[in-house]
Structures are given as C-alpha cells and as structure tokens.
Amino acid sequence: MKEKILEYIDEYWTNKTPKPFIPGKTVVPVSGAVISSEDIKTVADALLDGWFTEWVYASKFSRKLSEYVGVKHAILCNSGSSASLLATLACLEKFSRNKKQYKIVTCATGFPTTVAPIVQFGYVPLFVDVDPITLNIKEVDTLECLVQPDVAGIVVAHTLGFPIEFVHNIRMLCDAEGKFFVEDCCDVLGGSHFNIKKLGSYGHTATCSFFPSHQITAGEGGAVFTDDDELAEIVRCYCEWGRDCSCKPGQDNTCGKRFDHTWTNLPTRYDHKYTYTRLGYNLKMTELQAALGYSQLSKVDVFAQMRRDNYQYLYDLTANLPGLSLVEPSRYASPFGFPITATKAKGLVEFLESRNIRTRPVFAGNLTRQPAFDNLYYENHSKLVNSDYLMENTFWVGCHPALTKEMLEYVADSVKEYVKGKG
Q: Pairing state of beta strands 103-107 and 124-128?
C-alpha cells in the first residue's frame, strides 16, 4: 500500500504543468526552492512511518551532511538562527574563561541572528566594516581586532554566498591566539575555499540554514558543523533541553548505565534521561524536515553550479552598464543572490519592483543603524563608511535554480532599460 501511495505522488508531481512566464506579470522571485517528486516521496515515506521527531532520516541526513562538508559532526537543529545560537554558545563555554575577553568580532553588514547571540550572552560586538568589492568583512581590520587582548573570538558570515578569501588565516590566527571562530555558512553551502576544502570546515564551529531561500531546503532547519568532539557534545546538550543523556526520542538506556550515574545533589540511581547538566533548549529538527533535507542534499552541487551559471549569465549581460558595480563571479562561490551597487539604487529598485522583479537589500545593511541597536552597547573598529554606503546603494536580485533563462534575460533587460533611461 505504501509503495502505491508513493507511486501516486510521483505521478501527480511529475505531471504538474509549469506556468508560462509572462514578462511584467509573472513574479521573478529573489529565491525559490526546487522540489522534485523524489523529495516529496521521501517526506511522504517518513510521514507514513508515523515517527515525527528525529529518527532514521535525521541520522542519515546528519551523517551525509558531515561527509559532504568534510567534518566529524553535523548536529541538526530547527533553523540557521538556532544554529548560530548553539555554535556561539558552545564556543563561549569552551574557549572564553578569561573575563577580560568580553568582545567578539563580527561584520557590521550582515544578518541580525549572526550577532544576536553575542549580545544575548553578555558580550560586546566589535564591528568591522565591510569590503565594498567582496561584500565580506575587511581583512586587515579583522586580523587587527583578533589580536586584541579583550577579544574572545569572531562570528562572521560568508556574505551572499561569496567565500571569505582569508578564512584560513582567520582560523590560523584564532588558534595561535587561543580564540574561537564561528563560521556562518548559512548562505554558502556548496562553496569552497579555492577548492581546498568545503566552507563550513574552517570554524571551530560552523552554521548552516535550510530555509527555502538557501541552496537546499528542509522547509526550515539548520545545522552546526564541527571537528571537535567536545564542542559537538556541548552543542547537542544545549540543543536537546540541556540533558546529559545522548538517547534520541524513543530510545532508552543506549549507554547501558541509565540508573548507574552518580550526582552530588540527585537521588541515588536517578534516571539519566532526566539529568540536566546545562540550561538548554529544544531546538531539534523534525524527522519530516530531515527527510526533505536528506533528499535535497544529493543535489547540492548541481544547485550550486546552477547558481554560478545564472550568476555568470546575469553578470555577462549587465557588467558594462554605466553607474553599476558588480561582484565578480567566482567558481568557488555558491551565490545566494546577484548583488548590484548603483548610484541611483532606490530608483532602480522601484523600477524593478514595478516590473514584478523582486529585490532585497543586503540583509540588515549596517546593523548598527537598525532600531534594535538603538539601546545596545557595541563598539566599532573604525567608521563604518562602506557599510553605510552598501546600505544606501546595494541590493540583490535572484540567481537561484528555479529561474529560467527567459526570466534572467528579463531582469537584465529591465536593468539596461532603467540605466539607459536615467543615465
């Protein structure tokens, strides 16, 4: 019966007729997941098994993900933002024992949940300006900050899927200084550092997101990567209520010592499944999310290449237009979007939106100008001139695999039309 249901799903999904693209009427989205009948069947397979918390597919997805990135551990969680919280908290617990180290380096141009754990755990963000050419954190300023005695570590993202070219230097310097590196890879799964290693394998911990706009999706969901056994155990503990027990839902006594542990203030032979060594959370991924992520992961390299191809296509069509500045294509990137810096960005954005071409700013722009930071204490390494400039003049359009050549040409033609009309 189960096989028959899966056959019907395959038939239904395969026979879906795509809607034709009508320039000016059909929306050109900035992001969009590419879902196959195989993805839907995998989720249905998990659903029909009747187990909804982490189980078989979660285990398979975690193992396959760690192998893909090239790390020992990939701990699944419910979002990329939760991954940032877990990755930062674990590093703070292991590395930050010096109370004089109260600052954490990060980029002023970015996404709020990369920075949120820094503030929420009582540390001070030390903001470094963005490089306007690469859209990533400035190299010299970053390395200068990391040798400061009051700095505990760094939490930084590969912006819009463009690799931080000095990511190896960050890790080497952090190791030399005894500081931690949280590598935010939510936008860049499938990217590499000059084809040497996959991004996500450089930080002491690294994060990933499976939100539908990213390279692969689990509907929602995230993961923390690490090669460090101790950090992996800390992350798992905080992710699963703060329990000391490593049993998954539905498991009992996998260690064979469930009632044999001794704790100073607990009753004799207290149940280890309900022993809490940290004040944690429930941030686990569901089995249905894991099933979708597991199915999608087999296509991550294909999706990343499609993003690179779409990016190159848009770049070739718009690179020589006056008044525009573009980020050069990279075969090592896994582009999240196609950024455009324009001297008349607001007008261009309004023009594109009027033609049903969706646009987005570079996330929160200069974070320190966001209302959430009005009453927060932070420090800047220097004046955030480039972050301000990008906030005013840079936006991005889609280059994801769901876009057709016809859509990409429409985007490029629209940009050309505006530039030629406005000068």
A: parallel
